[in-house]
Amino acid sequence: MAAGARGTSMGPSTSQPRRSRRRSNTSGGNEDDFGGGNGYARSKSPRRSGHGHATRATTSIMRKPHTSNNNNNNNNVEKVTPAAGGGKWSSFRVRLVSGLCLMATFISAICSGHLHVWIMILAIQTIMVHELFTLAYQIRNEKRNLPWFRTQQWWFFLCAVFYVHGRFLIHGAHPSIMTKATGPTQSFVQWCLNHHTFVSYAMYIAGFVLFVVTLKKRFYLEQFVHFAWIHMTLLVVFAQSSFFVSNVFNGLIWFVLPSWLVIWNDVMAYLFGKAFGRTQLIKLSPKKTLEGFIGALFMTLLIAPVSADFLMKFRWMTCPAKSLSYFRDTSWLDCDNDETFQPMDVTLDMPPRWVLSTVPFPWVRDTLDKLGFDVTFTTSPLHLHSLVLALFAALIAPFGGFFASGLKRAFRIKDFGASIPGHGGLTDRFDCQVVMAMFTYIYYQSFVEADFALPAGPYDVSGVWDAVNTRFTNAERLALYDHLGTLLNKSVVV
Prior knowledge:
Layout: H1 18-26, H2 70-80, H3 86-112, H4 114-140, H5 149-172, H6 175-179, H7 184-194, H8 196-213, H9 220-241, H10 243-250, H11 253-276, E1 280-282, E2 285-289, H12 290-311, H13 315-318, E3 344-350, H14 353-356, H15 362-371, E4 373-379, H16 381-395, H17 398-410, H18 426-429, H19 431-448, H20 461-470, H21 474-493
Antiparallel strand pairs: 1-2, 3-4
Helix pairs in contact: 3-4, 4-9, 4-10, 5-8, 5-9, 9-19, 10-11, 10-19, 11-12, 11-16, 11-19, 12-16, 16-19, 17-19
């Protein structure tokens, strides 16, 4: 029965004055706050319809317990009120333990090498996608029972995993994995990898046909919204985070350094915001302050060269992964560093030459040139690259978090999940990292690898071996063997 019905008498609870009943309904807590980590309340009090009965004012996500009198309401308030200081310290311990466990997992994977970091990234992607798929299920399908809802979600995710990570497997696997087939299963896997793009497309088309066939009358809009949600999740979250893997294969430092800069910037923004925050930065995140944003920018720029200098002292952090076979190829443990990690002398003209060239008066230009001086210091290209990464981590990457905050407010939830006790879901923790991963990949391809790239040619030994085993005819292999023998004989004579 509706507890707020007008003009009826259904027991002792309806004999209260209207004001006392309204006070008892709002004494249980503030509905404007996040309720138990599940979402915002829709309204503060029930709205009455024209028929004299109260309409529903809460959602299935947040429900207030039904009470019969003021005494019961007071008892409920006393039960849910936490003891002074107990809940706060208990929550802090949970956050601390889960944070330390997460940090230990990351450090263990990084110290184990490229392959284990790749597996860790795939696990993180799976959990993040699961959190967003679960959110869509709770909102879109709990009461509609759309056909093949979960199956379509995970089928398209499987297509994305096979296409993206399959390419990394093809380029990173040892040639013997791609050429040797000792049974039906190995032959099938080899065929799928050799025709990887076609198999990926066939899998996606199968999911597309399944979606069209399962369209249900009166639920067309809901199903197309679900279809768009799947693709948005895979594009915004999965596709961007997949660039982490490419960064790892280029060298672990290109994964660790950007990730560390994002974490450092987030911590500094929190500390500066707590200490000096007065001006709100953006309405999507009311606790974010302009003072914290600016303070974190300067601190991130300061720590970036120091972090880069520390990380490149470890040779295994800078070596790229030529293959995924640790037992056959151990070059990732020790390699010759390229020019990116080599020291170089940098000279800065004060004032800069381009500034002097813009002065219209020759006597002023000559005077400034005589008063000017040069500053020379030793650094490495990585230190300069780290400053660019720090700028992006401090200025642009936080907008990934703002995007996630806007999405959560749109769905009236506090966290995307509860994968990390005390911290919410992995999506809440990696929203900025996803944006940083894609920028690092594009920056590396544009300004790091391009500057020191060798001329076109199969300089990768594993690539040559793969071509010889899969594409060369027997005659071509014999010709290559004779040519290599000639080269070796000349080197011995010399």
